[in-house]
Amino acid sequence: MKIALTCPASLPATQFGGILFLCIDIARELAKKDHEITIYTTDLDFTNNTSTFNKHLPRNEKTNGFTIKRTHVFLKIYLFFVNPGMYNQIKIDQPEIIHAIGLRGFQAFISALVSKFHNIPLVLTDQGGLYTHPDFEKKGIQKMLYKFQEPLIKFVIKQARKIIVANEYESSIFSKYCESSKLVIVRNGIDFENLQTIPFDFKAEHGINGRFLLFLGRFNRVKGIDLLLESFSAVCKQPEFDDVKLVIIGADFGYRTEMFKQIEALQIKNRIKVIEKATRDEVISSYHACDFLVLPSRWEMSPLTPLEAFACKKTVVSTKAHGIPYVIEDGKNGILIEPDDVKSLADSIIMLLRDKEKTIKLGENGYKLVKEVCNSKNMAENVFQVYRSVVNSD
User: Fold this and answer.
1) Strand duo 2-6 + 36-42: pairing
2) Per-residue confidence (pLDDT) for residue 233, from 0 to 100
3) pLDDT tens column, 151-181
């Protein structure tokens, strides 16, 4: 099958977030089955920001059996990247189906236009753009952008033949905007096999002698970094944890300055290591080397980071916010607390630091989930069945 995947960003912008990896993983797995896969995207380079668009990136690149076609972004409003050249690329290539990943992206709107005017069926995957993210409560220019996007989003939803959602929580959100027959639940998956090899010794590389906790994600208030720093400050006050450090890996999405100010104010700078511009090998190595992951998010739809930690047999401390409990099961493969509860977060971290046997058991249960269910092979196969049902219905 000739398949078009569209996404606001692709390689080399690996720090952009989950939708990028979902798109790449689907492309790679389906290319292995001899489907003709092309990702249509922007030329976002992501040199530790969301504004680096690189005209020198190849316009047409073959990698891992699939093709990436990039067009230049000439206007950017927050994460709304306008690259109208993508329209002609898809129109000329005439795929059998278009799969737009990232509902709020300009790329989903272009996908819907091509679908409508050239009679190519459209499938949609959102990953959290439909009115649940706390940023939608903001005022000013960002609020105006969301208002502007509303008719575009309704057009994309209406044009889509099927909408792939990651869990029942996301399905309940979409059911308010379209008929339930459009919705198909496909659990997110990650590249399990790629995560089994340890690229290098993370502790040796970064001079870490003792244990460490890991946070991996965007530097944004919604990720709960402020809560993590407060709770870790409480951990640092206990002499038995003098050897424990906190490693923060990510990229700035508006919270970097506040994060460093808080680290200074809490006087825990000597216990924190912040790594920006991390390579993929560095991320994978950090998963394997950490004691466990801490993700105290105020919002997530269906996070991939816990699944990656599970693939490395590491457990996760997170919150009960939104779609997180559909990925992390409290007491089975991780620990879940109420959002914004600093004391419970600190208590959970301390409990796992003290109970190595429990920490290992939770990590092994997570490993089993990813190996058997939430991996990219299963996800891609289930996504392809959606494609086939749509194409065969014509």
Assistant:
1) parallel
2) 97
3) 889 999 999 999 999 999 999 888 888 899 9
Q: Which residue has the higher pLDDT, 351 or 138?
A: 351
pLDDT higher than threshold 60 for residue 132: no
State the Cα–Cα distance between residues 164 and 186, nearest whole angstrom: 6
Rg (CA), the chain: 21
Residue 38: pLDDT over 90: yes
**Residue 180: what are its φ and ψ, rounded to 5°?**
-65, -25
pLDDT value of residue 362: 98
End-to-end CA distance of the chain: 15
Same domain as 224, residue 247: yes
Q: Are 125 and 162 in contact (CB under 8 A)?
A: no
What is the pLDDT, as a whole number, of residue 130?
61
Residues 180 and 249 in one domain: no
Determine the structural domain holding residue 250 and report its residue range.
193-372
Q: Compute CA 279 distance to the chain's CA centroid, rounded to the nearest angstrom.
A: 16
Report the CATH number that the domain containing residue 281 is assigned in CATH.
3.40.50.2000
